[in-house]
Amino acid sequence: MPDAKTRRILGPFNRVEGDLELRVQADESGQRVEKAWVNSPLFRGFEQMLLGRPAEDALVITPRICGICSVAQSVAAASALASARGLRPTANGQHATNIVLATENLADHLSHFYLFFMPDFARDHYSDQPWFAPVQRRFKAQRGGAMNEVLQARAQWLHITALLAGKWPHSLAIQPGGTTCAIDRAQRNRLITLIRQFQLFLERCLFGGASVEKILSLSSAADLAALCERHPNGDLAVFCQLARDLELTQLGCSTALPMSFGAYPQPEGGHLFARGLDEGGTRKLDIADISEDISHAWLRDSKSSRHPREGQTDPHYDTAKGYSWCKAPRLGGAVVEVGALARQRVAGQPLISALVAEHGSNVFSRELARLIELASVSQAMLDWATALDPAQPFIDNSNTTTDGEGCGLMEAARGSLGHWLQLDKGKISHYQIIAPTTWNFSPRDAQDQPGPLEAALVGVPLAETADDSVALQHVIRSYDPCMVCTVH
Question: Is residue 75 very low, low, confident or very high in pLDDT (cuts 50, 70, 90)?
Fold first, then answer.
C-alpha cells in the first residue's frame, strides 16, 4: 500500500458508472504517479443471489447488475444456459441477438465519447490551448452543443431494441435458443432504416462528412491524418487534433495481454470479431487458463486462485492484503486488458494494428477503437437485419435439460464478459461472473502484479485532487469503467 508520506486517496470520480476509489503513491518529485491501487468499494453479491434459484431466473436477475449494459448480461446468461443445455440459437435468433447487443454496445460507445470522455477537454485546465473555446462550446459537460444532437440520435437508435426486444433495459426477449420477438417484413425494413439513419448521423456529426465505408478503409496513421484534413469539422478530427497536441499516444500506456472472447457469433460459425489473444498476431485463447486471484481482495477462500467454474465469492472485509472487493482475473498468470482496443487488435483491424505497432496501447488508441467500432458494427448490423427471414423461427425451445454446466462468453462494449454456471435438477448450484471492468480494474495478484489500470497509471502527471488531475482522468476514462458490473 502507499507510503503514508506520499500517498493520496482520489475519488469519487464524476462521469464514471458506479463507485471508484484510487490510491496513489507519488514519486520523489510529488508530481507523477509511482504506484497505484484501484479499489472497487461497492460489493454487489449477485452470484450469491442466484444460488438455489430456477435456471431461468438468471435471465431475470443478471440484467439487473447494470442499467447501461443489461443486454450484455442477458446475452452472457442466455449463452451459459444454452451451453449447459446443448442449445444453439436459430439463425434468426442469433442475428436478432447480435442486433440488440450491438445497439446497446454502440449506444455505450457514443455516450462514452460525447458525455464521459470529451467533456474533460472542455475544462478550465486547458483554457490556454488555441482550440479550447470551440471545444468548450461543443463538449462542455451538460451544456455543450453536441449533447442535444447525441441524446436525440441515441434515443432514436434505441428504437431498434424496442422492435426486437420489447424494451430496454432489462428485456427478457433474449433466451438460450434465440429471441422471443419475431418481426414481420415491415418491421425488418424499419430496422434497416433506423440503422442507416444512425450511420448518416455518424457521417455528419462524428466523421465530418466522411462515409462509413471511407472510415473503414483507413489503414495507417497517414490515412487518418489525411481524412481529418479533408473533414476538419467532424468530431473525429477534433479528437485527433487534441490527441496530437496533448500527446495522448504517450499517456496510459499498457503492456497487458489483449484478449477477446469473440464478438457477435455468426449462425454459420465464427464471430464478426475473432476470439483470441494478440501477441504480435492472433493466438488461440484457452478458457481453461482463466483464474481469479483473491490475494488482494476482501474475500475469503481456502485457495488464493481458482478457475471461475470452481470459484467462490465469500466476502470478508478483514483480510491482511485486501484493498478492493474486486478479484484479480488472470490468464495463465498474465495480466489481461479487454475492451474495444483489445477486440480490434485481436481482429487485426488495419488502422488499429498500424497505430498499435507505432505507439502501443494508450489513451488515444483505446478511444479510437470505439469510434472505429461505431462504423464497422453498424455496417454489420445492416447485413444481419437484411438476413432476418420473418418466415423462419426466431427461437428453439426444444431442450430444457435440468442438469449440466456451461459458460457464456461474449463481448460487451467494455470488453470480455463471462458467466459460468452449474445446474442441479433445474436449480442453479453455482454461478460466477467476470465482467470487463473486473479484468481492467483488478487489484494486484499473489505475484504482486498490478492490474491493467494500476500499471497504466504509473508515470501519469498528478495534481493535489482528482478534479485537478486531468491526465489521470483521461487514463481512467479511456478504459470506460462500469464499476457496478465489477464486483459480485
Answer: very high
